[in-house]
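Deliverable D2.4 — example input (structure tokens):
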């Protein structure tokens, strides 16, 4: 069970039909420092986006 802790950050969004947000690279923060909104508008700060939304 030791392994489980080590792999905590290796969660794959693909498992949930999602991908790392391409705009913020999964940080959830807006890549635009001058933006009023500091949260990524594409994923809403979550860091992941739905895969189909990305493919479209
Ligand atoms: Zn994002």
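Example output (designed residues):
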């Amino acid at each position: 069970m030791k392994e489980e802790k080590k792999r905590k950050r290796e969660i794959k969004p693909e498992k949930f039909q999602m991908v790392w947000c391409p705009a913020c690279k999964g940080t959830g923060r807006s890549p635009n420092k001058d933006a009023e909104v500091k949260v990524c508008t594409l994923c809403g700060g979550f860091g992941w986006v739905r895969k189909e939304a990305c493919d479209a």
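The chain has one domain: 2-55.
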